Amino acid sequence: CKMLSAVRVSQPKKIYTFWSKFLGGSMWFWILWRLKHDWPDVVGHHHVLKDEAEGHH
Fold this sequence. Notes:
This protein is mainly alpha-helical. The protein contains two helices and no strands.
């Protein structure tokens, strides 16, 4: 049956593979960097931690 014939997918050029890995790695580096530096704001604990550091309860 012709409907069940295999579909051929060509391999991407090496430059596309390189750029996809480079941009994907850059994205995760940026996300983790921002999370490291802004995690109190991201999870919503910035004001709580700030008040505790100043001695307010």
